[in-house]
Specification:
It is a single chain. By secondary structure, the chain is of the alpha+beta class. The protein has one domain (2-11, 13-235): outer membrane lipoprotein receptor (LolB), chain A (Clam), CATH 2.50.20. Helix content is 17%, strand content 41%. It has 4 helices and 12 strands; from the N terminus they run ββααβββααβββββββ. Strands 1, 2, 3, 4, 5, 6, 7, 8, 9, 10, 11 and 12 form a 12-stranded antiparallel beta sheet that branches. Strand 6 and strand 7 (144-153) form a beta hairpin. Helix 1 packs parallel to helix 3. The radius of gyration is 18 Å and the shape is globular. The two termini are 33 Å apart.
Amino acid sequence: MVHEQKRDPSAGARRCRHPGFVGLGLGILALGLGGLVAAQAPNYFQQYPGGYTRAVYEIVTEGLEDPIRLGWTVEPASASDSDDRLRVVTTNEVIARRDQLETGVANGVAQAQLLLQDEAIQALLANRESLEPHTVFLLSGGARFVTGARETIGGVPAICGLLTDPEKPDRRTFLAIAEDPTVPFPPWMQLEEEKPSGGRPHTLSVCTSLALTALAPGRRFVEVFRLQLVEFERRE
């Protein structure tokens, strides 16, 4: 269950390019994409209104210099109104050194699955229509989702927020949730961990309305994972 509280908004090796992967790398990503299909927003296909949807996401993760690009297309299987079948196509592309194809890629896709299947995130996605800007939402287990403004990411309007869990005090997840049920995954997820050194220092490339909410005096958070929508197309 989600409860809300209003808040004040002012407060070395050769790099290789593969449309897929060879050997073990291909198997890792194929399994990963299968997991992502199963981890999209709750009841995505049951609620899908029809028409054509195309989305492209980028995954930025530790262990990879360049992002993984994930493509997602959904369209009717035929032109017949009586045919309820859908054609779903997933694609992937990454530029990485050979030694990164088996570790960085696997870690990035696995992290995406774990986040998308997180109980708190699933609850927020299931209640997306109830979310409002500049509100504190209390979730089962003590997690809090503090929202900022409604912003546009990859061409899709979404409510930005910061999710924290008292059981994981050294971690926090920035999250943007779209009301549009045809968007398969959140337009933006950024996982950060508290570390004394190293890593990619915290920055907000989107959802800048969360700048004040993200302040943590005396603490140092670094980005360890990011999933972001970069292209979106929708036709009825």
